Amino acid sequence: MNENILESPAGGATYNYRVEPRDVDATHRARIVAMADYILDTAGEDADRRGFGVRTLFPQGCTWVLSRFAMELQRQPQQYESFDVRTWVSSFDRLLTTRNFELTDAGGNILGAAVSNWVMLDLNTRRPMDLRGRQEYERAIVHEPSPVEAPRRLPATEGMLQSRHLVAYSDIDFNCHMNSMRYLSLMLDLLPAEQLTERTFSRFDMNFLHESHLGEELTIHCCPDAAASLFEIRKADGTAACRAEVKWR
Amino acid sequence: MNENILESPAGGATYNYRVEPRDVDATHRARIVAMADYILDTAGEDADRRGFGVRTLFPQGCTWVLSRFAMELQRQPQQYESFDVRTWVSSFDRLLTTRNFELTDAGGNILGAAVSNWVMLDLNTRRPMDLRGRQEYERAIVHEPSPVEAPRRLPATEGMLQSRHLVAYSDIDFNCHMNSMRYLSLMLDLLPAEQLTERTFSRFDMNFLHESHLGEELTIHCCPDAAASLFEIRKADGTAACRAEVKWR
Q1: Cβ B31–A170 below 8 Å, yes or no?
Q2: Which of A12, A87, A157, B199 could form a Cys-Cys staple with B248, CB 3.0–4.6 A?
Q3: In chain A, what residues touch B21 (CB-CB under 8 Å)?
Q4: For position A5, what pLDDT does the model report?
Q5: Could you give the CA distance from residue B234 to residue B18 in angstroms, rounded to a whole number?
Q6: Given CB atoms, is B126 within the 8 Å cutoff of chain A?
């Protein structure tokens, strides 16, 4: 449980975390997926605290699902490093809400930033809901622009590297579908590991297009390049479940 | 970061956690692996606080690795439930140290218990070190027996269910080998998912026999049974990396 929460004078709220041993790779730096997980935890916790989180929505028959996500890091922090995540919601449209994040290290230096777009899903129909006219959401808006470019819409990718994955029990989350960060983990696992420990991560953009469920066979496609790796995870019928572009410095 | 630590009047120390959304499955109960992860986090944190954790050992060229592990649960707690893990070290032998755990829910009811055996590994030779005659370890001993039966030595298993896994970047932890809980996750993913959500978990025993490294191909074998599932994960040369027995009520 995170007790280290501060309403931020800059708007939004700030949550403090520490890079735990389970978060790091063999180089003892936080994995990209672990940093993204902390950001998504912050989103869930902050929404819950403001009364429009999954804790409130589930009994009403709806939930939040991630639609697009972008994250930039100046560096991957070291094991046991403490860092802050400040988060604020900057808009609610008919279909999407935009939540922003700014990461700072213990010395107050910018560590990274992220922008996320969320859709509210009806749990019965699994269709998006209309977000307009909800006063509790309007009240949460902080009129501060996103700290980095919004998540981009990504094109289809054929890919040279390929692998298969059968969606398993451990992939499924509280929303009864494959967890969004499991897609990213499968994508990065396709790259030569030295690329992940020797290259410097700069930014990812992710598009979540269709849900995947238990027992489905997915194929992971990657078009690797020196500056950017393009990924697509496809369902058995060829539909794209998730696309991502990962940029390296 | 866990700030909710209490030196326990009963001996050892008590750490407080909350079942987070990322810990649960589609039934909104904590996954078995998530509960085991909290227990192992507690072990790491408590050893660090007492000056003989990985944080101290790594600069000295050594680390702790899990040798055997057993966990029992009365029930899998619900999302957002708070629980305590009390931990104490009951012995140091030449090769093994025994660390115990008792889990209680917010109402003070016993939620479960665990016993772990650890080996100290020389990071250069990857051979076990002699644990005798270290005063800081002797001082940490609490003369209270393990709360449940010690982890059992498990026999080889042929298995009817089988799958393959290529050890990937996301499997490798700070000890530069496949993380112990990833073995358990691969094993449980081999079972029909309804077994994991409809059956009631009772206890697992795990033996960690040989390390697995990046790029190795592993085969997962399972002999499923109504009362107990026996697992073995084998390396390409047939050596057992890990064995487990999972009992259901």
Answers
A1: yes
A2: B199
A3: 41, 44, 54, 173-174
A4: 67
A5: 34
A6: no
Tell me if A189 and B168 make a contact (CB, 8 A cut-off): yes
CB contacts < 8 Å between A and B, how many?
Answer: 89
Measure the CA–CA gap between A4 and A9, rounded to whole angstroms: 15
B63: chain A residues, CB-CB within 8 Å: none
CA of A133 to nearest chain B CA: how many angstroms apart?
28
Contact B28 A215 (CB under 8 A): no
Q: Could you give the angle at which helices B180-189 and B32-49 cross, rounded to 10 degrees? A: 170
Q: Is B16 on the interface with A (CB under 8 A)?
A: yes
A15 Cα to chain B: minimum distance (Å)? 11
For A188-228, the pLDDT digits (tens) are 999 988 888 888 999 999 999 999 999 999 999 999 877 89
Looking at this protein, which amino acid is placed at residue B103? L
At B1 the pLDDT is: 39
Q: Touching check for B54 and chain A: CB below 8 Å?
A: yes
Partner residue facing B214 (CB), from A24, A31, A193? A193
When scoring A57, A166, A174 by the number of chain B Cβ atoms within 10 A, the one with the most, hence best to mutate, is A174
Q: What is the pLDDT along chain B (249 residues), one digit of tens a residue?
A: 345 567 777 778 999 999 999 999 999 999 999 999 999 999 999 999 999 999 999 999 999 999 999 999 999 999 999 999 999 999 999 999 999 999 999 999 999 999 999 999 999 999 999 998 888 888 889 999 999 999 999 999 887 879 999 999 999 999 999 999 999 999 999 998 888 888 899 999 999 999 999 999 999 999 987 789 999 999 999 999 999 999 998
Interface test with A, best of B31, B39, B63, B169 (most A CBs within 10 A): B169
Contacts of B20 in chain A (CB under 8 A): 41
pLDDT digits (tens, 9 = 90+) for A81-140: 999 999 999 999 999 999 999 999 999 999 999 999 999 999 999 999 999 888 888 888
3-state secondary structure of A33: helix
Distance of CA B199 to the CA centre of its chain: 21
ipTM of the predicted structure?
Answer: 0.92
pTM above 0.80, yes or no: yes
